[in-house]
Amino acid sequence: MSDERPHLEWEGESEDRAAAMSAARRRAEFLEMAVGDPIVIANEFSEIRVVRVNTRNGARLLIDSPKSGQWITLDPLELEALTWQNEATLSAMVGNIAAPLIPDAQETNGSEEEDR
Fold first, then answer.
1. What is the DSSP letter of 7?
2. Is the pTM of this model over 0.85?
3. What is the dihedral of CA 64, 94, 86, 40, to 10 degrees?
4. In the predicted model, what is the mean pLDDT of residues 24-35?
5. Residue spans with biased composition (Basic and acidic residues) (predicted)?
């Protein structure tokens, strides 16, 4: 009996791998520009690490979820936009776990083409 398992692949695996590697490089570049110590905010549902990064276009916050591996950088205007939101918008974001509230244009176009 062979202990070797077949390698299963999915459609788009190489593209997913390349995108993940690119995102990891970008995250590492941002972390090289970090200023000060990260702030960790956690409760029983989530843990988030926030760090200021100084880019050539100004300061941004890198918000990182160590558990999921997801991260984002936000500039001051994007952060201010959070203050314009109401509880319903934030609840909708939380209720749409691990997915954007509004998909990217290419995601929308791709699903429309698949439906045709």
1. P
2. no
3. -30
4. 93
5. 1-18
